[in-house]
Amino acid sequence: MTWKRLIGSLVLLCSGPGAAQALQLAVPFQARINIETSCAVVADNLDFGNVGTINGGETASATVTVNCSQGTPYTLSFNPLLSITAYNGAMVNGANSVAYSAALNSAGGIGPGAAAILGLLLPQATPAAGIYTDNRTVYLSY
Fold first, then answer.
1. Run of H or E including 7
2. Which secondary structure element, helix H or strand E, spans residue 12, and what is its range?
3. pTM score, whole prediction
4. Whole-number Å distance between alpha carbons of 55 and 58
5. Residue 102 is inside which H or E element, if any?
6. Along the 142 residues of the chain, how does pLDDT read in single tens digits?
7. Closest to 85 (Cα-Cα) out of 64, 61, 103
8. Measured between alpha carbons, how far is 6 from 10 in angstroms, rounded to an integer?
């Protein structure tokens, strides 16, 4: 057999019906997600605004927005270890202070939700003019 014939035969073998073709394999896979329980909380400031003379009974409110995974139970508190939903505090400016009380209108819920912090100025003598503040924390447990 000559080289021409041998090459011609190989070309016919490689291009014929029994020639090597690209193989195709099928491999199954799964799309998956695990939604974990999670929560986030944001609290607005409890701002009593501008007051000239404190009479007692002045009110303020702030919103606590809770964004938890759907169906997740949660609780709110002013204490990290105890279920305390009300307190008496004092906003201070130097040596002066303004007494107030605050309470959560809801101690918890399920899934996304909101609560209000309701503030009340207590009857007292009006201190010197100025901005009075008290830094507090709302704790979210889930």
1. helix 3-15
2. helix 3-15
3. 0.75
4. 7
5. strand 96-104
6. 555 554 455 444 455 555 578 999 999 999 999 999 999 999 999 999 999 999 999 999 999 999 999 999 999 999 998 899 999 999 999 999 999 999 999 999 998 999 999 999 999 999 999 999 999 999 999 9
7. 103
8. 6
